[in-house]
Fold these 2 entries.
Entry 1:
Amino acid sequence: MSGPLGNGLYARYEELIQQAAYLVSYLVKEDCKVELFINRLNADNQIDHLRMSDGRKQLRLALVRLAWIHESDRFVAMKRFDQIIDRQKHPHAELIRIDASLLKQMSVG
């Protein structure tokens, strides 16, 4: 959601939220387990992370977290965010990145 240096939201962050919400919804409806990382710091100064689970409750939790993203949130640089994901993601998880490069691909294609 942030710019490359982590010092603010990407200009088209609403579109990123929309794409993430659609993907989570689709995966849950297909009976997939979903783990969600959001590039923002929570109250404990940790990356916002929804552990892997499935079902309607997981969908609701993910959508609420996405809805809470705000311009005043604190973000980290993408390089640091990538390192955190590599350390914390479930070992059997497949990473699907929704970021500015996705929006560029969508506008070209």
Note: The longest strand covers residues 34-41.
Entry 2:
Amino acid sequence: MEKKFKRTTVTSALPYANGPVHIGHLAGVYVPADIYVRYLRLKKEDVLFIGGSDEHGVPITIRAKKEGVTPQDIVDRYHTLIRDSFKEFGISFDVYGRTSSKIHHDTASDFFRKLYDKNEFIEKTSMQYYDEEAHTFLADRYITGECPRCHAEGAYGDQCEKCGSTLSPTELINPKSAISGSQPVMKETKHWYLPLDKHESWLRQWILEDHKEWRPNVYGQCKSWLDMGLQPRAVSRDLDWGIPVPVEGADGKVLYVWFDAPIGYISNTKELLPDSWEKWWKDPETRLIHFIGKDNIVFHCIVFPAMLKAEGSYILPDNVPANEFLNLEGDKISTSRNWAVWLHEYLQDFPGKQDVLRYVLTANAPETKDNDFTWKDFQARNNNELVAVYGNFVNRAMVLTNKYFDGKVPACGELNDYDRDTLKEFADVKAEVEKLLNVFKFRDAQKEAMNLARIGNKYLADTEPWKLAKTDMNRVATILNISLQLVANLAIAFEPFLPFSSEKLRHMLNMESFEWEQLGRTDLLSEGHQLNKPELLFEKIEDETIQAQVDKLLATKKANEEANYKANPIKPTIAFEEFEKLDIRVGTVLECEVVPKMKKLLKFKIADGLENRTIVSGIAQHYKPEELIGKQVLFIANLAPRQFKNGLVSEGMILSAENFDGSLAVTSVLKEVKPGSEVK
């Protein structure tokens, strides 16, 4: 039998305050969490939504060093940007705190100290890379080298960004310190570890037996870790940015970010509710739900529960509905490569269109497998679903009521079979959407809500009240009453998913009361109820707007290719005599034209100092003919003639250099020489 809880604590993963939030974060964590919280609030349930910035860890110190500022400067900047972006996007946190706050430092220190005093940690010494020039131990991200898998340069000590392999620092070929550039040495250091192996037995029972209802991706990853056998995990590290380890002999050591960050959920609750926070974390009648991405599953399902259990007074999570990853235009989202759609930029580029992105990200939610975001799909879902279905139905129902009944809800007369069939179709929508939301199937729940709009759109299109207006106004009144009741239901059904549009729609309907319990009713708007002026709920997004976003990504891709350019390996060595066989000369372009019906080819007439010759070259996509006339180019003079299908014969080859992006640059000489001059 399902347990009934008095209240729900909902947490969402704390984003690193070393950069802005992107659509991958939104789709994986924040939009589904916000949908769920808004749904519970609509049901008048007691719920607390906890968020905040993760402001410790190596990525923050790396960015600070790169920019020549302090870590505090970095977290202050990005905490503000992230918090404000979330607020503008409608992520409705009850509190959005930060792990650099005093209350968090105190809470995390006390938590560590309690476990330390209970002998829940073990002390271990290990060998770790040390930078002798900078006089510091190196975190994994501060060590770079050649990847042992794909042999890409610049792989980090924990991961290769090129091939995605998880690494350890000792696997890198020719490791270097990212601080000084010197080769690090191995040095002994002492740290505290949480012995996860000690917790393995109860974790196995709690997850694999007691929580079989968890998502397959979450359950499967946990099972894999448990089956491999859990190992002690360090809770401290050598770093100067973070929460100092609160024991003697721990100078220069801070709490590992994975240990300190989840405690942020607790400290942020304390910040909001200093006198009553404990009931949200320690009362068995509280349900704890963690919304996270798949890279955080182990921390929230195994490590954090082990910490809470070791402390002894906290509840454990009841569910962890982690999502997989969202890709962008077929490629993995990457902060370091700037391959992302950033939330703050989206809000600038698409003002007032928060709900469009919320809708598309939910429709493509990576709930059980990785999914892909494309700008073309974004446009199609807006234009073909939000505008053409939902918005169109609402607009027609409102405009027709305004036209025929002065904006007042008309009376509902006698129903015919089609009316009854339509009402029957949407009568069960509340139960269906509720069933899906209760098991965190947000994508299907939104689809069900949109089906309600499709029912309404079809009903209006089939009944054609605008044609009946000349002969049967009673029938028109009934049709529009039913349509408006459907519209009012949409305002409730879409509230968790599209809060801005629902608020706008409720204003148009002049609808003050809206609760989840009302969903499915056909008397939400009483006869004679005055509606406000209709407005467009959504607007079409044009091709040029989408192309601008695609172009921005293409520019990013080109910049990444340029930054990561590495010349191809040198070809096998040849004898000088082989090279001498090539007769490379300088020619002057006398004429140049595009070859008809062969758009890649340019036909050249070249002055070669003997007899003029014709050369055909596949560079039409890189040059206009007029750009090359009069220029001197290098060509191979003794290449066997080549005949094309159209009968054209090429008497040589113009030499070009291929750039990193595939573009070609014709080779020339630094000063003018006589046509036919040999290259030696």
Note: The radius of gyration is 33 Å.
